[in-house]
Design goal:
binds flavin mononucleotide, alpha/beta, single chain, 42% helix
């Protein structure tokens, strides 16, 4: 799907959702999309970041990743969000970013964006689905078109079978428990393919 513009917008403290975002980028590029990987602005105080070595290391390693803006939303035909679960919900950093799009929403520029979402949590059933659904609620208010993976490919079963969006468990060692790379790439390709239909390619 050449010429589909995809923004992969993520928040990550310790790198899981950053890795998911990069896999989404790779999958989308395989089908010819133009992709931007963008983080949302951090809201936590520096002291909190410094108190967690994994968080501090990830923040430093991704300092050069551009921050998402309203202009990026306007630019994109499709958006894939990736966020960690926070008490069964979207992290405040992503919520703040969404809440800053009131002007864009008010001018009709969020309508018909093709969107999809991914999440991680510390437990296999720690709220990933609730987080994704919560994000999708906001997307309905945007007039966006949700491109959930459903059960559209066998690869999704091996990745936990979450039809709302790819989800993964972050183990105690900080690494992902399930192998979800294929599911992420499938979700990204599907999002791009649907966006291609919406923009008329
Ligand atoms: C404030 C806070 C709330 C969290 N809430 C949950 C939760 O409800 N369920 C769960 O399984 N894990 C929870 N976690 C663990 C995170 O979801 C996990 O560390 C995250 O998915 C890792 O993603 P990241 O590496 O991209 O930051 C929480 C972590 C923090 C710091």
């Amino acid at each position: 799907m050449a010429n589909v513009k995809l923004a992969v917008i993520y928040y990550s403290s310790t790198g899981t959702n950053y890795e998911l975002a990069r896999w989404a980028e790779a999958g989308a590029k395989e089908v010819g999309a133009e992709v931007k990987v963008l983080k949302v602005p951090e809201l936590a105080p520096q002291a909190a970041i410094d108190s967690n070595p994994a968080w501090k290391a990830h923040a430093e390693a991704t300092a050069d990743v551009p921050e998402a803006t309203s202009a990026d939303i306007e630019w994109a035909d499709a958006i894939i969000f990736s966020v960690p679960t926070r008490f069964g919900n979207v992290p405040s950093q992503m919520k703040q970013f969404l809440d800053m799009q009131g002007g864009l929403w008010g001018s009709g520029k969020t309508v018909n964006k093709v969107v999809s979402a991914m999440s991680s949590a510390g437990n296999p059933h720690g709220g990933q689905e609730a987080t994704i659904l919560s994000l999708y609620t906001s997307m309905m208010h945007w007039g966006a078109i949700i491109a959930a993976p459903g059960y559209t490919d066998q690869v999704l079963y091996g990745a936990g079978g979450n039809p709302y969006g790819t989800s993964v468990t972050q183990g105690q060692d900080g690494k992902m428990v399930e192998d979800v790379e294929g599911a992420v790439k499938h979700q990204a390709k599907r999002t791009v393919e649907i966006a291609g239909r919406v923009v008329g390619q």
